[in-house]
Amino acid sequence: MIDDPTTQAASLTGPASRRSGGAAAELARRRLFVISLRCGRLANRLSLFATFVALAEEHGDRVINFTFHSYAHLFESTRSDIYCQYPPGGRRSWLDRIPGLGQLLRFTRLPYHAVRTAGVVNEQLALLGSSAITLRERRGETLSVEGPEVQARIGKARLVFVIGFRFRAPDCLRRHAAKVRAYFRPMPEHEQASRRAVERLRQKADVVVGVHIRHGDYRNWRGGKYFFEVGRYAEWMRELARQFSGTRVAFLVCSDEPRDAREFPGLSVGLAKGSPVEDICALAECDYLVGPVSSFTQWASYYGNKPLFQLRDSELAIQRDKFRVCFLEEVPE
What we know:
The chain has helices at 5-12, 21-29, 42-59, 69-72, 94-97, 101-108, 110-125, 148-154, 170-175, 177-183, 188-202, 230-242, 276-285, 295-304; strands at residues 32-35, 62-64, 85-86, 132-136, 143-144, 159-163, 167-168, 207-213, 249-255, 268-271, 288-292, 307-311, 324-325. With 333 residues, the chain is of the alpha/beta class.
């Protein structure tokens, strides 16, 4: 006989199984989303995770995300939680309390491989009937998890394996922004390093603009569609500075390749030299953001609640009145 999926969900999320009967039963009634496929690097994983955190907050559901293990140590809410769960667990799982066990599971990625396999098997065999489904993205299509189509696919399922990246929930992300941002607060050392990078520029500027120069993989991704030479970035920066008449403007440049302030003559420039999490948080501390279409600047805009201008082609004129706070509605492509 196959166990009821609420029981399986409780076992997956550990802390629920040790609560009093009433609390455990209440948790078991809540739908559980299990993110089951890794999707790119830091900003991609933050964007997908945040989408389902916001959806869970909207409907009183839960999320676990073993795919976030690679970055969990960087954030307050996930660093000591092997389940990377939302809402956060009230206490550490027994898997983390046994010395070395949690670290071993993270290193071997056994929990991730288990849920990825479970999602695929469930999709093919539907062993739990309508109580558990696999929600897989469709190639080239962005899916709103808030919309009627996806909600109909989920139906009455209480266990949902999520496979794919192209899921979006901008309205939920807008409504629950405060809780989502609080959940993804970085560890203090990264937060402080990010603030210091921006505060140095604020000493001589009224406005700080964060600029993301992504070269590396963007030379070839989408045929180099969003690859722009450093000289073109400098031109955009000058164009924007002129639109702040009578205001001292400084720029914080973040790049995936070494940069030199001399590449930006005539501009007040600071160079971010931190880790990816420190760079993305430093961008979030700026007043305005500029960068190619990328989940990196999209996340910085959302997390920092700062207006973003996305560079879509080299001929685009930068306009101050076109900056908008991003709610992760767009899949970079």
